[in-house]
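HUMAN: Mind sharing a backbone?

ASSISTANT:
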Amino acid sequence: MKHSILKIAAVLSVLFFLSANVFAQETFNLQYKFSKGSTYLYNSDIASQLTQEVMGKEMKFGNDIHGVIRFLVDDVEDNGDIQFTASMDSATLKSNMMGKDTLISLTSLIGKRVKAVLSSFGEVKSCTMIDSVEENSNRMMSVPQEIKRFFTKFAGKDLKIGESWNSSEIDTIKNYGGTIISNVDMTCTLSGKENKLGHECFIIPFSGKLKISGKGNMQGMDFTMEGDGTSSGTIYFDGKTGLLVYSEGSMENDMTMATTGEQSMVIPITQNIKYTQTLINR
């Protein structure tokens, strides 16, 4: 009996070793696979906390943005590029300024369309606003910027579980009467698989560093801005259907804004952002 148990244990050990070795050698090439004519809906939630010090006085601001983003796939080209039209089905902003809460429905953003082209590996090749948006609403939430940040750049090659890839992105934000540029360097890792929201997903943790610079004019004052920050989070991607199922992440930025003119000053700013993106219609 004892010898039989030992034999069974030995066989199971060999089988486990073989299955683990096969899994370790298996490779995956992550790609988006949107279908022409299909519509995909996502919940997008962004919570931002900003602290700045002006003339020795600390000021805190909080913004919570909730929206539903609609992606309508217009065409899928032979090379895998995806042409789609994106718009907001709903968008609300809850702000807290100096202890006072305000809830705003961003109705001027709803239905405003963005035309974009996405490669199968997640590169946003173009992103253009079709419909005009009021300047004040665009300052609160830029739809093209949200679309550009939505997609993760994949490696564009076969990867084994445990392997990583790097990507760099230059993000330009035209806002506050000027231009803010952020340089982002990201590292993503294909770490394994997990069931998420009913999908068999690849787990992709990521981390990155960013540098921020820019200038503009706000309330008649010229300013320059510089700083750096970090980001981290996890992506859950259904490799079979080629869909982002869920992602969560956070960013921490330390910046300095310097104003010129009669009221020149240097303003330290700390910003913390947390966000989630959730597939809701499949």
Q: What stands out?
A: The chain has three helices and 15 strands. The CA atoms of residues 245 and 279 lie 5 Å apart.
